[in-house]
Amino acid sequence: MPSPDDVRRMFSRLAPRYDVFNRWASLGLHAFWRKRVVDRLHAGEDVLDLGCGTGDLALLAADKGCRVVGLDFSEEMLEIARRRGLHLEWIRAEASRIPLPDGRFDAIVSAFLLRNLYRSGAWDVTLTETGRLLKKGGRLIFLDLSLPGNPLLRLGHAVYLRTILPLVGRIAAGARWPGRYLTASIEEFPPASAIRVSLESAGFQDPGIESFCGGVVSLVTAIKT
Length: 225
Prior knowledge:
The chain is of the alpha/beta class. The chain is about 45% helix and about 25% strand. It has helices at about 5-15, 20-25, 30-40, 55-65, 75-85, 115-120, 125-135, 150-175, 180-185, 190-200, and strands at about 45-50, 65-70, 90, 105-110, 135-145, 205-210, 215-225. Strand 2, helix 5 and strand 3 (about 90) form a beta-alpha-beta unit. The protein is globular.
């Protein structure tokens, strides 16, 4: 498994082609999936977009009337986000060490970060940080790529991950394509039971996991007690 610095460099190299790859690899569905996150937000709320990348989710939340802070560990990703959202606050930091005050946010959202945190071993400490930053009753809303439960869908999905996805990645990102990392992070997506246990251990209640597209994408939610 690559080190945290290796992962940061990998995403930084990918930044100029990140949006193109997302569109091609998801067949345009990534915008629909992000909208499912924003549908759970309310105008006037303070929202943190954790692992904001080039800013797609943060901008959607701002368009809904939320006060948004975008945070990412890649300066190259943030440079693109800043150009797209001059009116928003963008911060470079690790998800496990966030330089913001306790109880600031009504909601913390994320798109395609959970599995990377889980794979790197930073999931539990990041949950502690999100709990610190949320107001009482605040919501955690994390969207990510996951694994279908149906055996036939899972087989087809595995073929896609091993053949079509790398081809799309090499076409869209060229030499910036991170090889096996993306496929491995999806294949290692934690089971629902493990996610629920970790959320409850971190002091969240009502953990829920909603699946889309046959389980290819999951929406993880919980409430701070």
